[in-house]
Amino acid sequence: MIGGGPGAFIGPVHRIAAELDREIELVAGAFSSDPGRSREAGEAYGIEPSRAYADVAAMLAGEGERSDGIDFVTIVSPNHHHLPAARAALAAGLPVLCDKPLTANLAEARLLAVAVRDAGLPFGVTYTYSGYPMVREARDRIAAGVLGTVRKVVVEYPQGWLAGDAEGKQAEWRLDPARAGEGGCIADIGTHAFQLAEFVTGLRVTRLFADLAAVVPGRQLDDDAAVLLRFDNGARGVLLASQIETGELNGLRIRVYGDRGGLVWRQEDQTNLMLHRPDGSSEILRAGTALGEAARRASRTPGGHPEGYLEAFANIYRDFARQLRGEPGCAVPGIEEGLRGMAFVSTAVAASRDARGWVDFGI
User: Fold this and answer.
1) 101: cis peptide before it, omega within 30°?
2) How confident is the model at residue 300 (pLDDT cuts 50, 70, 90)?
Protein backbone atom coordinates (compact mmCIF):
# COMPACT_ATOMS: atom_id res chain seq x y z
CA MET A 1 0.00 0.00 0.00
CA ILE A 2 1.19 3.48 -0.89
CA GLY A 3 -0.39 6.04 1.44
CA GLY A 4 -2.95 5.27 4.12
CA GLY A 5 -0.81 6.48 7.03
CA PRO A 6 -1.93 7.74 10.47
CA GLY A 7 -5.09 9.84 10.27
CA ALA A 8 -6.08 8.64 6.80
CA PHE A 9 -9.69 7.51 6.39
CA ILE A 10 -9.33 5.51 3.22
CA GLY A 11 -6.23 3.43 4.08
CA PRO A 12 -7.95 1.21 6.66
CA VAL A 13 -10.97 0.92 4.35
CA HIS A 14 -8.75 -0.43 1.57
CA ARG A 15 -7.06 -2.82 3.97
CA ILE A 16 -10.36 -4.23 5.33
CA ALA A 17 -11.85 -4.52 1.84
CA ALA A 18 -8.76 -6.20 0.39
CA GLU A 19 -8.61 -8.81 3.13
CA LEU A 20 -12.35 -9.50 3.51
CA ASP A 21 -12.39 -12.56 1.25
CA ARG A 22 -8.95 -13.86 2.32
CA GLU A 23 -7.68 -13.69 -1.25
CA ILE A 24 -5.34 -10.75 -0.56
CA GLU A 25 -3.09 -9.84 2.35
CA LEU A 26 -1.49 -6.48 3.10
CA VAL A 27 2.18 -7.29 3.74
CA ALA A 28 4.14 -4.11 2.97
CA GLY A 29 3.78 -0.41 2.45
CA ALA A 30 5.14 3.09 2.13
CA PHE A 31 2.36 4.55 4.23
CA SER A 32 3.59 8.13 4.62
CA SER A 33 6.20 10.54 3.27
CA ASP A 34 7.41 10.73 6.89
CA PRO A 35 9.43 7.55 7.67
CA GLY A 36 8.42 7.63 11.32
CA ARG A 37 4.72 7.84 10.47
CA SER A 38 5.15 5.06 7.93
CA ARG A 39 6.60 2.84 10.67
CA GLU A 40 3.73 3.85 12.96
CA ALA A 41 1.18 2.88 10.31
CA GLY A 42 2.97 -0.42 9.72
CA GLU A 43 2.66 -1.24 13.40
CA ALA A 44 -1.06 -0.40 13.36
CA TYR A 45 -1.60 -2.61 10.31
CA GLY A 46 0.41 -5.45 11.86
CA ILE A 47 3.09 -5.29 9.18
CA GLU A 48 6.55 -6.77 9.73
CA PRO A 49 8.66 -3.71 10.76
CA SER A 50 11.19 -4.16 7.96
CA ARG A 51 8.37 -3.97 5.39
CA ALA A 52 7.07 -0.54 6.50
CA TYR A 53 9.26 1.51 4.17
CA ALA A 54 10.41 5.13 4.23
CA ASP A 55 9.31 5.80 0.64
CA VAL A 56 8.01 4.18 -2.53
CA ALA A 57 11.44 3.63 -4.08
CA ALA A 58 12.65 1.82 -0.96
CA MET A 59 9.54 -0.36 -0.92
CA LEU A 60 9.85 -1.39 -4.56
CA ALA A 61 13.55 -2.11 -4.19
CA GLY A 62 13.17 -3.99 -0.92
CA GLU A 63 10.24 -6.08 -2.07
CA GLY A 64 11.95 -6.81 -5.38
CA GLU A 65 14.75 -8.54 -3.51
CA ARG A 66 12.44 -10.84 -1.55
CA SER A 67 11.35 -14.28 -2.71
CA ASP A 68 7.94 -13.55 -1.16
CA GLY A 69 7.70 -9.95 -2.42
CA ILE A 70 4.47 -8.13 -3.14
CA ASP A 71 2.23 -9.18 -6.05
CA PHE A 72 0.61 -5.79 -6.69
CA VAL A 73 0.42 -2.25 -5.35
CA THR A 74 -2.60 -0.26 -4.21
CA ILE A 75 -2.33 3.54 -4.18
CA VAL A 76 -4.40 5.44 -1.60
CA SER A 77 -2.35 8.65 -1.25
CA PRO A 78 -3.51 12.18 -2.26
CA ASN A 79 -4.07 12.75 -5.97
CA HIS A 80 -0.73 14.37 -6.81
CA HIS A 81 1.08 11.18 -5.72
CA HIS A 82 -0.85 8.87 -8.04
CA LEU A 83 1.12 9.36 -11.26
CA PRO A 84 4.68 8.97 -9.88
CA ALA A 85 3.68 6.10 -7.60
CA ALA A 86 1.82 4.22 -10.33
CA ARG A 87 4.57 4.69 -12.90
CA ALA A 88 7.21 3.50 -10.45
CA ALA A 89 5.20 0.37 -9.60
CA LEU A 90 4.50 -0.43 -13.25
CA ALA A 91 8.18 0.04 -14.09
CA ALA A 92 8.97 -2.47 -11.35
CA GLY A 93 6.67 -4.99 -13.08
CA LEU A 94 3.80 -4.72 -10.60
CA PRO A 95 0.08 -4.43 -11.38
CA VAL A 96 -1.61 -1.42 -9.78
CA LEU A 97 -4.97 -0.70 -8.15
CA CYS A 98 -5.37 3.07 -7.76
CA ASP A 99 -7.84 5.17 -5.82
CA LYS A 100 -9.89 7.73 -7.74
CA PRO A 101 -9.54 10.25 -9.26
CA LEU A 102 -6.87 8.73 -11.43
CA THR A 103 -4.41 11.64 -11.13
CA ALA A 104 -4.30 15.35 -10.27
CA ASN A 105 -5.09 16.51 -13.82
CA LEU A 106 -5.82 15.28 -17.32
CA ALA A 107 -2.25 15.70 -18.61
CA GLU A 108 -1.01 13.36 -15.88
CA ALA A 109 -3.82 10.91 -16.63
CA ARG A 110 -2.75 10.70 -20.24
CA LEU A 111 0.84 10.05 -19.20
CA LEU A 112 -0.32 7.28 -16.90
CA ALA A 113 -2.46 5.73 -19.63
CA VAL A 114 0.65 5.50 -21.82
CA ALA A 115 2.60 3.90 -18.95
CA VAL A 116 -0.16 1.31 -18.42
CA ARG A 117 -0.27 0.50 -22.13
CA ASP A 118 3.50 0.17 -22.35
CA ALA A 119 3.73 -2.00 -19.24
CA GLY A 120 0.97 -4.35 -20.37
CA LEU A 121 0.01 -5.04 -16.75
CA PRO A 122 -3.39 -5.10 -15.04
CA PHE A 123 -4.48 -1.69 -13.78
CA GLY A 124 -7.65 -0.91 -11.85
CA VAL A 125 -9.36 2.14 -10.36
CA THR A 126 -11.42 1.86 -7.18
CA TYR A 127 -14.72 3.35 -8.25
CA THR A 128 -16.31 1.76 -5.22
CA TYR A 129 -19.97 2.13 -6.06
CA SER A 130 -19.70 -0.09 -9.13
CA GLY A 131 -19.07 -2.90 -6.64
CA TYR A 132 -22.55 -2.86 -5.09
CA PRO A 133 -24.66 -5.90 -6.03
CA MET A 134 -27.76 -3.83 -6.86
CA VAL A 135 -25.73 -1.45 -9.03
CA ARG A 136 -24.56 -4.45 -11.04
CA GLU A 137 -28.15 -5.69 -11.17
CA ALA A 138 -29.28 -2.31 -12.52
CA ARG A 139 -26.55 -2.42 -15.16
CA ASP A 140 -27.56 -5.90 -16.29
CA ARG A 141 -31.28 -5.06 -16.46
CA ILE A 142 -30.65 -1.95 -18.53
CA ALA A 143 -28.35 -3.94 -20.86
CA ALA A 144 -31.11 -6.55 -21.21
CA GLY A 145 -33.54 -3.86 -22.37
CA VAL A 146 -35.83 -3.83 -19.32
CA LEU A 147 -36.12 -0.02 -19.53
CA GLY A 148 -36.22 0.09 -23.31
CA THR A 149 -34.36 3.06 -24.81
CA VAL A 150 -32.73 5.16 -22.10
CA ARG A 151 -33.97 8.75 -22.28
CA LYS A 152 -32.96 10.41 -19.00
CA VAL A 153 -30.22 9.88 -16.42
CA VAL A 154 -30.10 11.79 -13.13
CA VAL A 155 -27.19 11.17 -10.76
CA GLU A 156 -26.81 13.08 -7.51
CA TYR A 157 -24.08 13.02 -4.88
CA PRO A 158 -24.82 15.38 -1.97
CA GLN A 159 -22.56 15.72 1.07
CA GLY A 160 -22.44 18.39 3.74
CA TRP A 161 -19.13 17.87 5.50
CA LEU A 162 -17.51 20.93 3.88
CA ALA A 163 -20.45 23.28 4.44
CA GLY A 164 -18.55 25.09 7.20
CA ASP A 165 -14.94 25.41 8.22
CA ALA A 166 -12.75 22.70 6.72
CA GLU A 167 -10.83 21.01 9.49
CA GLY A 168 -8.64 17.92 9.58
CA LYS A 169 -6.29 16.12 7.24
CA GLN A 170 -8.99 14.88 4.87
CA ALA A 171 -10.38 18.35 4.23
CA GLU A 172 -7.02 20.11 3.99
CA TRP A 173 -5.56 18.17 1.09
CA ARG A 174 -8.85 17.98 -0.83
CA LEU A 175 -9.08 21.78 -0.87
CA ASP A 176 -5.43 22.32 -1.82
CA PRO A 177 -4.82 22.56 -5.60
CA ALA A 178 -1.20 21.49 -5.11
CA ARG A 179 -2.34 18.14 -3.71
CA ALA A 180 -5.88 17.61 -5.01
CA GLY A 181 -5.32 18.91 -8.54
CA GLU A 182 -7.55 21.02 -10.75
CA GLY A 183 -10.89 19.92 -9.29
CA GLY A 184 -12.34 19.92 -5.80
CA CYS A 185 -15.80 18.43 -5.29
CA ILE A 186 -16.03 17.57 -9.00
CA ALA A 187 -12.91 15.39 -8.69
CA ASP A 188 -13.58 13.97 -5.23
CA ILE A 189 -17.19 12.82 -5.63
CA GLY A 190 -18.25 14.10 -9.06
CA THR A 191 -16.04 11.48 -10.69
CA HIS A 192 -17.89 8.77 -8.74
CA ALA A 193 -21.23 10.08 -10.01
CA PHE A 194 -19.93 10.34 -13.58
CA GLN A 195 -18.51 6.81 -13.58
CA LEU A 196 -21.70 5.43 -12.03
CA ALA A 197 -23.86 7.01 -14.75
CA GLU A 198 -21.78 5.48 -17.54
CA PHE A 199 -21.30 2.14 -15.74
CA VAL A 200 -25.00 1.58 -15.04
CA THR A 201 -26.37 2.73 -18.39
CA GLY A 202 -23.61 1.44 -20.66
CA LEU A 203 -23.79 4.82 -22.43
CA ARG A 204 -21.04 7.39 -22.92
CA VAL A 205 -21.23 11.13 -22.32
CA THR A 206 -20.51 13.15 -25.48
CA ARG A 207 -21.36 16.75 -24.42
CA LEU A 208 -21.72 18.68 -21.17
CA PHE A 209 -22.69 22.08 -19.73
CA ALA A 210 -21.00 22.75 -16.38
CA ASP A 211 -21.57 25.21 -13.53
CA LEU A 212 -18.98 24.80 -10.75
CA ALA A 213 -18.48 27.09 -7.76
CA ALA A 214 -16.40 27.58 -4.64
CA VAL A 215 -19.39 28.51 -2.48
CA VAL A 216 -17.55 28.89 0.83
CA PRO A 217 -15.48 32.09 0.64
CA GLY A 218 -11.72 31.73 0.35
CA ARG A 219 -11.65 28.33 -1.33
CA GLN A 220 -9.58 27.82 -4.45
CA LEU A 221 -11.34 24.66 -5.62
CA ASP A 222 -15.02 24.00 -6.27
CA ASP A 223 -17.21 22.63 -3.49
CA ASP A 224 -20.45 22.52 -5.53
CA ALA A 225 -21.14 21.35 -9.10
CA ALA A 226 -24.07 21.06 -11.48
CA VAL A 227 -23.50 19.52 -14.91
CA LEU A 228 -25.96 18.86 -17.74
CA LEU A 229 -25.06 15.82 -19.85
CA ARG A 230 -25.76 14.43 -23.31
CA PHE A 231 -25.16 10.74 -23.96
CA ASP A 232 -24.18 8.98 -27.16
CA ASN A 233 -27.71 7.65 -27.75
CA GLY A 234 -29.22 11.14 -27.41
CA ALA A 235 -30.34 10.72 -23.80
CA ARG A 236 -30.34 13.75 -21.52
CA GLY A 237 -28.63 13.74 -18.14
CA VAL A 238 -28.09 15.78 -15.00
CA LEU A 239 -25.18 15.37 -12.58
CA LEU A 240 -25.27 17.16 -9.21
CA ALA A 241 -22.35 16.91 -6.79
CA SER A 242 -21.96 19.04 -3.69
CA GLN A 243 -20.09 19.00 -0.39
CA ILE A 244 -21.79 22.07 1.07
CA GLU A 245 -25.36 20.72 1.39
CA THR A 246 -25.73 21.05 5.14
CA GLY A 247 -26.91 17.88 6.86
CA GLU A 248 -26.32 15.56 3.94
CA LEU A 249 -24.09 12.55 4.62
CA ASN A 250 -23.31 10.40 1.57
CA GLY A 251 -26.50 10.57 -0.45
CA LEU A 252 -25.40 9.17 -3.81
CA ARG A 253 -28.43 8.34 -5.95
CA ILE A 254 -28.95 7.42 -9.60
CA ARG A 255 -32.21 7.42 -11.55
CA VAL A 256 -32.45 6.07 -15.10
CA TYR A 257 -35.58 6.38 -17.21
CA GLY A 258 -36.38 4.68 -20.51
CA ASP A 259 -39.45 4.43 -22.71
CA ARG A 260 -40.48 1.19 -20.95
CA GLY A 261 -39.58 1.86 -17.32
CA GLY A 262 -37.28 3.44 -14.76
CA LEU A 263 -34.75 2.35 -12.14
CA VAL A 264 -33.71 4.11 -8.93
CA TRP A 265 -30.82 3.19 -6.60
CA ARG A 266 -29.66 5.00 -3.45
CA GLN A 267 -26.34 4.34 -1.74
CA GLU A 268 -27.91 5.00 1.68
CA ASP A 269 -30.49 2.26 0.91
CA GLN A 270 -28.06 0.14 -1.05
CA THR A 271 -29.76 -3.26 -0.80
CA ASN A 272 -32.88 -2.11 -2.67
CA LEU A 273 -33.39 -1.25 -6.33
CA MET A 274 -36.68 0.36 -7.40
CA LEU A 275 -38.15 -0.60 -10.78
CA HIS A 276 -40.90 1.69 -12.14
CA ARG A 277 -43.30 0.57 -14.87
CA PRO A 278 -45.26 2.67 -17.40
CA ASP A 279 -48.59 1.77 -15.75
CA GLY A 280 -47.53 3.54 -12.56
CA SER A 281 -46.73 0.41 -10.58
CA SER A 282 -43.35 -0.19 -8.97
CA GLU A 283 -41.38 -3.19 -7.75
CA ILE A 284 -38.66 -3.22 -5.10
CA LEU A 285 -35.84 -5.59 -6.05
CA ARG A 286 -33.95 -6.69 -2.95
CA ALA A 287 -30.39 -7.92 -2.55
CA GLY A 288 -30.07 -11.60 -1.76
CA THR A 289 -33.21 -12.58 -3.71
CA ALA A 290 -33.66 -13.84 -7.27
CA LEU A 291 -31.19 -11.62 -9.08
CA GLY A 292 -28.87 -11.92 -12.07
CA GLU A 293 -25.45 -13.55 -12.09
CA ALA A 294 -23.44 -10.33 -11.63
CA ALA A 295 -25.40 -9.35 -8.52
CA ARG A 296 -25.20 -12.87 -7.09
CA ARG A 297 -21.42 -12.95 -7.53
CA ALA A 298 -21.19 -9.63 -5.70
CA SER A 299 -23.31 -10.80 -2.73
CA ARG A 300 -22.05 -12.60 0.36
CA THR A 301 -25.05 -12.86 2.67
CA PRO A 302 -28.70 -13.98 2.41
CA GLY A 303 -31.46 -11.44 1.90
CA GLY A 304 -32.17 -9.26 4.92
CA HIS A 305 -28.52 -9.20 6.00
CA PRO A 306 -27.41 -5.82 4.62
CA GLU A 307 -24.14 -5.50 2.77
CA GLY A 308 -22.67 -2.06 2.30
CA TYR A 309 -19.68 0.11 1.49
CA LEU A 310 -16.93 -2.22 2.72
CA GLU A 311 -18.37 -5.18 0.84
CA ALA A 312 -18.72 -3.13 -2.36
CA PHE A 313 -15.09 -2.08 -1.99
CA ALA A 314 -14.17 -5.71 -1.35
CA ASN A 315 -15.84 -6.74 -4.61
CA ILE A 316 -13.42 -4.48 -6.50
CA TYR A 317 -10.48 -6.10 -4.71
CA ARG A 318 -11.80 -9.63 -5.17
CA ASP A 319 -12.35 -9.01 -8.89
CA PHE A 320 -8.85 -7.56 -9.19
CA ALA A 321 -7.33 -10.63 -7.51
CA ARG A 322 -9.21 -12.85 -9.92
CA GLN A 323 -8.11 -10.70 -12.85
CA LEU A 324 -4.49 -11.22 -11.77
CA ARG A 325 -5.13 -14.96 -11.79
CA GLY A 326 -6.63 -14.76 -15.27
CA GLU A 327 -10.15 -15.73 -14.19
CA PRO A 328 -13.16 -14.53 -16.25
CA GLY A 329 -16.11 -12.43 -15.14
CA CYS A 330 -14.22 -9.60 -13.44
CA ALA A 331 -15.64 -6.08 -13.37
CA VAL A 332 -12.81 -3.81 -12.23
CA PRO A 333 -12.91 -0.28 -13.68
CA GLY A 334 -9.70 0.19 -15.65
CA ILE A 335 -7.47 2.86 -17.10
CA GLU A 336 -10.09 3.97 -19.64
CA GLU A 337 -12.64 4.69 -16.91
CA GLY A 338 -9.97 6.52 -14.92
CA LEU A 339 -8.96 8.55 -17.96
CA ARG A 340 -12.59 9.42 -18.77
CA GLY A 341 -13.07 10.51 -15.17
CA MET A 342 -10.15 12.93 -15.39
CA ALA A 343 -11.33 14.19 -18.79
CA PHE A 344 -14.72 14.87 -17.20
CA VAL A 345 -13.11 16.87 -14.39
CA SER A 346 -10.87 18.86 -16.73
CA THR A 347 -13.63 19.59 -19.25
CA ALA A 348 -16.14 20.61 -16.58
CA VAL A 349 -13.66 22.87 -14.76
CA ALA A 350 -12.62 24.66 -17.95
CA ALA A 351 -16.15 24.95 -19.35
CA SER A 352 -17.48 26.43 -16.12
CA ARG A 353 -14.55 28.78 -15.60
CA ASP A 354 -14.82 30.19 -19.13
CA ALA A 355 -18.65 30.12 -19.25
CA ARG A 356 -18.48 28.15 -22.51
CA GLY A 357 -21.96 26.63 -22.34
CA TRP A 358 -22.31 23.31 -24.11
CA VAL A 359 -18.95 21.71 -25.01
CA ASP A 360 -17.96 18.43 -26.64
CA PHE A 361 -16.60 15.76 -24.35
CA GLY A 362 -14.28 12.84 -25.02
CA ILE A 363 -10.81 11.48 -24.49
Assistant:
1) yes
2) confident
